[in-house]
Specification:
Strand order of the largest sheet: 1-2
Distance between the termini: 61 Å
CATH superfamily: Rhodopsin 7-helix transmembrane proteins
Largest sheet: 2 strands, antiparallel
Strand content: under 5%
CATH architecture: Up-down Bundle
Order of helices and strands: HHHHHEEHHHHH
Helix content: over 70%
Length: about 300
Amino acid sequence: MTYIPCLMVMVKSNLLKHTAYKLMFYLGLFDMSSIFANSMASGIYSLNGDVACNGITFKYFLGCLGMYSWIIQSTSVIYLALTRLFELCEWRFFRSLFEKHRLYFWLLAAQVYGFIWLFYDRAALFTSLGYAWYFDPYYRIEEMNFIDRTQFKDVYFVIHNFVVGGLLPLIYFALSIVLWLKARHGGAKTSRLQYLITFQSFVISLTVMVGSMIYAYINLVEVAETFGLVASAAWLINSGCPSILYLTINQTIRQGVLQLLKCSKVESEKCSHSSKVNVAVTPPNAVQQSNMQNKLS
């Protein structure tokens, strides 16, 4: 729920004039959609002790939603990292690729890429035997050991996650070198806003990198339940961490959210006060009826 006011503040403020915040807003939409799978559904299925076959139709739908959201999340985070690198390197040509209307082309490409995964790849299913989402519907069910499990390995998912997990540290390593060179040679100073945006991007990318590597690993080899719990926690943190990050270190968003809460509180108090006044004041018709009864008596 903390994500909604953060996104509202981004829309109402001037933050969306920055390419990075446009990407963060776009990323936030799919963070919220993935929370249905990695938070609510995972928690309920874990408490019930469900395996993949329990309610498989709805579980498959949630798996598709989670996969679609994850693909777009991880792709958008790479965009975010590249925009920070291009902007701080002051490479005008590469920076212009993500500016203004060109950014929407990249977002459309991410959507197309997500739809390809949605319609042409299989969805993962949750099982409480591993406390995570797996492509193998018989994961850790000993009675089904006679089935060839290799047919359920999703090589494309593993490749995608390892590429994401490998690219992000390389991009931010290059970014750290750029910042170090700027500080050493006394070039154009990087503004506080740029540092803030870069730090937010780094933390978001870090959670995506960790989640992508762990989920690729647990779907590649059978691991202990602990790894499944860590993978689920990593995906959940990846989806929920940005909103906490905005509220803690981004002063503009924090003040905007507080202002929204104050306005909503004032409105609720006004409504409560007006309802009390309406109850306390006797309607004119009721007064007239009372006078007529007194005269007749």
